[in-house]
């Protein structure tokens, strides 16, 4: 096999493409011949040593990928060699082959494109868990999505619309706002040129958003929370801005609001049945055309550095996918 190896935690520039022995799956694992892998924000954090999980060095980054099973562990009975699958493993995707616990592998419906599959489970799974499970989003409610043009943000816009919500998409440029409108957002806010609080007041008639989906953190968190509706739910998804905000707890008291943590990776491990049910609903929505990954760029794996540069420079609208075929 060949892969991009992280030998030291000095960022994507330090990754090295090299040959290594092709791994053999353990008893409860499968080996996947990787066809495509997507870049997610944790893939950037992990090569800097800033993610919640720190794998032992050296490791191959790439949390989400798709391909075909080419070897099975002795105890794996529900999958077979040749199956088209997507995997959420935390690492391993930026290489030609990866061994993954069978429990973290999802068989794909017939005809599901492998490029879309590589950009689906992580972002759509996160956003479905956040909005449908953790926020219990109801039809007719209003959702504010911060960082709406990015990977999880674009998924959140589509999922909220599929659930019958009104969606306000917040992004940092007019171009990104236009992309959000094309994804189905009902309204947009350019956070670089508009006051978030004033815009939300005008767009909601003073009611405020019922749900705030925040994968950004930083300076937008407090004004978003100050704008939230009575009994609102504030979803803490991530901190793409780099700064972890500190919210005054009295705001939650005054609004009767909930601050809700969203840790999808742990949810997948702890609640596999709920995870499977959520993915089944997402697959149905995909087949109905209600959700579909937005592709910012599809690049060969040799151009991984370019993909990382787009992600790190916050240029991405949707997902960057690396192909290995």
UniProtKB/TrEMBL annotation:
Superkingdom of origin: Bacteria
Gene3D superfamilies to which the protein is assigned, alphabetical: Medium-chain alcohol dehydrogenases, catalytic domain, NAD(P)-binding Rossmann-like Domain
Organism in which the protein naturally occurs: Ideonella paludis
Database matches in InterPro entries: ADH-like_C, ADH-like_N, ER, GroES-like_sf, NAD(P)-bd_dom_sf, Quin_OxRdtase/zeta-crystal_CS, Zn-ADH-like_protein
Domain Enoyl reductase (ER): 11-322
Pfam families: ADH_N, ADH_zinc_N
Protein name listed in UniProt: NADPH:quinone oxidoreductase family protein
SMART domains found in the cross-reference section: PKS_ER (SM00829)
């Amino acid at each position: 096999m060949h892969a991009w190896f992280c030998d030291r935690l000095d960022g994507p520039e330090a990754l090295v493409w090299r040959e290594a022995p092709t791994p053999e799956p353990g008893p409860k694992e499968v080996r996947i011949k990787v066809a495509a892998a997507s870049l997610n924000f944790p893939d950037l954090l992990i090569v800097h040593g800033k993610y919640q999980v720190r794998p032992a060095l050296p490791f191959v980054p790439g949390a989400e990928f798709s391909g075909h099973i080419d070897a099975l562990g002795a105890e794996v009975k529900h999958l077979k060699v040749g199956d088209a699958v997507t995997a959420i493993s935390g690492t391993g995707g930026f290489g030609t082959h990866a061994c993954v616990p069978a429990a973290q592998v999802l068989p794909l419906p017939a005809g599901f494109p492998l490029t879309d599959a590589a950009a689906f489970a992580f972002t759509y799974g996160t956003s479905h868990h956040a909005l449908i499970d953790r926020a219990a989003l109801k039809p007719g409610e209003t959702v504010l999505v911060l960082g709406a043009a990015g990977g999880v943000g674009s998924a959140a816009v589509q999922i909220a619309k599929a659930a019958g919500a009104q969606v306000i998409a917040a992004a940092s440029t007019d171009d990104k706002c236009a992309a959000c409108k094309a994804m189905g957002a009902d309204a947009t806010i350019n956070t670089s040129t508009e006051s978030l609080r004033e815009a939300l007041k005008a767009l909601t008639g003073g009611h405020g958003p019922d749900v705030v989906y925040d994968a950004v953190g930083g300076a937008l968190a407090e004004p978003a929370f100050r704008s939230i509706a009575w009994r609102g739910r504030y979803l803490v998804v991530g901190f793409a801005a780099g700064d972890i905000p500190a919210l005054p707890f009295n705001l939650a008291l005054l609004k009767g609001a909930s601050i809700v943590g969203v840790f999808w990776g742990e949810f997948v491990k702890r609640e596999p049945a709920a995870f499977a049910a959520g993915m089944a609903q997402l697959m149905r929505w995909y087949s109905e055309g209600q959700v579909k990954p937005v592709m910012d760029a599809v690049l060969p794996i040799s151009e991984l550095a370019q993909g990382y540069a787009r992600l790190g420079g916050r240029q991405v609208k949707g997902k960057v996918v690396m192909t290995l075929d």
